[in-house]
Design goal:
By secondary structure, the protein is mainly beta. It contains 1 helix and 9 strands, in the order E-E-E-H-E-E-E-E-E-E.
């Protein structure tokens, strides 16, 4: 078994071994820095002004956003409470009064 608990990010091999500050996979030859990999796995989601967003924050919509199947857009200035951060293109999951549950892109909101 591997001395480290870091499987290879390339081939998922479990026999990675340390070499200087890197880990090396003997199965595929991939080398990586486990500290950089940890930073990449926890990306920070930022609003339009560069503020870091976290679960439970309140945000304000910056521009009118069209909604498929709705008669009108989500208006600029709409306050959205208790957001939840998710992975994907629309990285904010929320509930907006009059529209229901939906996803928003973080670049169209600012932290309230």
């Amino acid at each position: 078994m591997s001395e480290t608990n870091n499987p290879c990010p390339s081939c998922k091999g479990i026999y990675a071994y340390p070499m200087d500050s890197l880990l090396v996979c003997p199965e595929c030859g991939h080398e990586w820095n486990p500290e950089e990999l940890a930073l990449e796995s926890n990306p920070q989601i930022k609003d339009a002004n560069g503020n870091i967003l976290v679960d439970g924050d309140s945000v304000i919509v910056l521009k009118n956003l069209p909604v498929k199947g709705a008669p009108g857009p989500v208006k600029a200035g709409t306050k959205v409470k208790n957001i939840r951060l998710v992975e994907g293109d629309h990285n904010i999951a929320c509930r907006i009064d009059g529209f229901g549950a939906m996803g928003l892109k973080s670049e169209f909101v600012k932290k309230a």
